[in-house]
Write a structure and sequence with these properties.
The chain is an all-alpha fold. The protein has one domain. Helices cover about 75% and strands about 0% of the residues. The chain contains 13 helices and two strands. A two-stranded antiparallel ribbon has the order 1-2. Helix 2 packs across helix 10, helix 3 packs antiparallel against helix 5 and helix 6 packs across helix 10. The protein is globular. The N terminus is likely disordered. Keywords: Membrane, Transmembrane, Transmembrane helix.
């Protein structure tokens, strides 16, 4: 009897995945065609090719709808909070994709621009609003101020880090997969995390082939998903040592990004460059 219910659970999981995967692919194809046809939201990628710049909003929308269907099925408010926070963080990235410019880069650049010129850039908006969203959602879920403050810092660093990796086709999602594989040695991922991660596959194909870009709308959502997985939202186990280790690593990488180019480091390392180039156009 137990095996029967397990099999039914697997069937429902596969059914859900196929539905959401089909939805994601359909929206991606329609949106890409529409934006290209009417020359909307197109930006040059690193090759100078003009493609839709913020299609990661479709990936985050798939995740948000998946969270909402869990909420309506279980009536667990946690999933509603996660859905709203995911959408807010992705939407903040969308604003940066549409209205952002390249006048300033990095934490320091946006702050100096505000102090010297009084310009409140979309990058600075992201620096302020992303921690606020994560803090508020954490307070609703955990009601512990210190923990929520820590999560706001950690979550923001994760979001920014994945944003920094989104400079070449497919790189951001590859980094997510690699990081999660490493995490899986220390924590058990449940079926929800697996579905969310596998929903990156159809999007990854188009990103890799340069049909569209993730944009901040997508890299923000990916960084936030990594944070959610790390902080036990989809795991049967909790590992505080792991969280502090990742916090240290993510903090160091964010600091280093102010002084070095990750792309140049990857290009100079044969192994990292091999991974980065897998599946990409030469």
């Amino acid at each position: 009897m137990g095996l029967y219910y397990q099999m039914e659970g697997v069937k429902n999981l596969v059914k859900d995945y196929l539905i959401f995967c089909g939805f994601e692919i359909g929206v991606l194809i329609f949106s890409t065609f529409y934006l290209k046809k009417y020359n909307l939201l197109l930006k040059e990628n690193f090759r100078g090719k003009k493609i839709p710049c913020c299609m990661g909003i479709v990936l985050s929308l798939s995740w948000v709808i998946y969270f909402l269907q869990i909420f309506f099925r279980t009536s667990n408010a946690k999933w509603l909070v996660v859905a709203i926070s995911m959408w807010c963080i992705s939407f903040i990235g969308l604003l940066d994709d549409i209205f952002g410019d390249n006048k300033s880069k990095g934490f320091k650049g946006h702050v100096i621009r505000f102090i010297k010129n009084g310009e409140f850039s979309t990058g600075l908006l992201k620096m302020v609003s992303v921690p606020a969203v994560i803090f508020i959602s954490s307070m609703i879920l955990h009601k512990i101020v210190v923990q929520s403050l820590f999560y706001a810092v950690l979550g923001s660093l994760c979001v920014n880090l994945f944003n920094l990796f989104d400079l070449r086709p497919g790189r951001c999602i590859k980094v997510l997969w690699i990081f999660v594989v490493v995490l899986s040695f220390f924590m058990h991922l449940d079926s929800t995390a697996v579905v969310l991660l596998t929903l990156t596959i159809p999007f990854f194909v188009g990103d890799l082939r340069e049909f569209y870009m993730l944009g901040d709308a997508g890299s923000n959502a990916i960084g936030y998903l990594f944070f959610l997985i790390l902080t036990n939202n989809f795991s049967a186990s909790y590992n505080s040592f792991l969280i502090w280790t990742v916090f240290f690593v993510v903090s160091v990488l964010n600091v280093l990004s102010e002084h070095i180019s990750f792309s140049k480091v990857i290009e100079r390392n044969n192994f990292l460059n091999f991974i980065d180039m897998l599946g990409r156009k030469n």
